[in-house]
Amino acid sequence: MPDGTSSKSTANIDRALNDHAFRASLEKIGFPVFRRRSAAAIAQFIDADRARWSGVIKTQNITGLIR
User: Residue 61 and residue 7: Cα distance in Å, rounded?
Assistant: First the structure.
């Protein structure tokens, strides 16, 4: 994505997520609203979530195969 387009998109998303009414409307329907994070913070979040759920997945013998 071109830098200008990326910057505009980021600014628009930030503006929307900083709007209390918009955030409330998303949260009301069960959509958790997260603030923008750095690549390192995202990696940390994913690693923690993976660690959180890996035990459950292994215990319940859950696989990626859906038939």
Answer: 43
Please tell me the number of Cα atoms within 13 Å of 21 on its side-chain side: 0
Please report, for residues 5, 6, 52, the alpha-carbon distance to residue 2 in angstroms, rounded to integers and kept in the order given.
5, 6, 36
What would the two tokens of residue 60 be? 């319940």
- Half-sphere CA count of 64, side-chain side, radius 13 A: 1
Does position 26 have pLDDT exceeding 80, yes or no? yes
**What is residue 35's predicted lDDT score, i.e. its pLDDT?**
75
Residue 49: name the closest of 65, 32, 66 by CA: 32
